[in-house]
Amino acid sequence: MKLTHSFAPLLLAPLACAISSVALAGDSGYAPMPPAPPVQTQEFIVRVGGSYMSPRNDKVSFVDETFQYFDAFRATVDPDDEWGWLINVEWKPVDHWGFELGYVNGETHSGGDADGYLSLVLDGERFGDVARFEADVSTASLKFYPLDPSCMVQPYVGGGISYTDFNGTNFRGATRANLESLGLRGEFDIGYSWGYTWQAGVDFNFGHDSSWLVNVAAVYARSVTDMRFRVFDDVPPPAGEDAFFDSYSGDYIYDPWMFNLSVGYKFSF
């Protein structure tokens, strides 16, 4: 009697499986297939708009490149804030993560003050805004979106690398005039800079089924470059006289904040 009770569950188990299979079977007698998982799409976003660029105020110590004066003079480089335009392209291979390539084309900055500039050479001439230059910033960033993709408001944070290219560099007219009054001419140059970048922003989607969005973002780019200039005779001196030539350089920390406002369009494959 005890042996029969012990084997009863083992004998009933196949019967229970058979009954459950018949109950789950459809009209054809086969169990229905489970629904297919949703297909993961790769999303792309293109944004175009304006960027308000606010560079850093930096005190630069210039060094005579002949190494006669290791701290020849100091200048405050304080460029004006300027507007530029931006474009960025983002690839979102999975939910919550995106990879963005961005570019900001800045307008011409001007600003700086170099009191006592080259006092040994220029007799204490005062220069106001000494130079003009343009700065273009390119970034590559990994971005994280914390909210569910179905939300119409999508905040994000991101970080990566930046490249700043300086161009359109020259002395301002007042500076050139002061040099010319002393029979001199100058050349001003800023190179380029690799650094890091980080950003925070929000995409505001027009609707769940809309491909359009509005974006606001704050982007920081680390940028340190070598600011250099040369001063030399405007007209070569007569034979037998020494030509005047001086070259100076100093590390300038540009470090712009960029406040972006743009319109975006998203699409999938």
UniProtKB/TrEMBL annotation:
SUPFAM superfamilies per UniProt: OMPA-like
Signal sequence, start to end: 1-25
InterPro entries, alphabetized: OMP/PagP_B-barrel, OMPW
Gene3D superfamilies the record matches: 2.40.160.20
Keywords: Signal
Pfam families, A to Z: OmpW
Superkingdom, taxonomy of origin: Bacteria
The name this protein goes by in its record: Outer membrane beta-barrel protein
Organism phylogeny: Bacteria, Pseudomonadati, Pseudomonadota, Gammaproteobacteria, Cellvibrionales
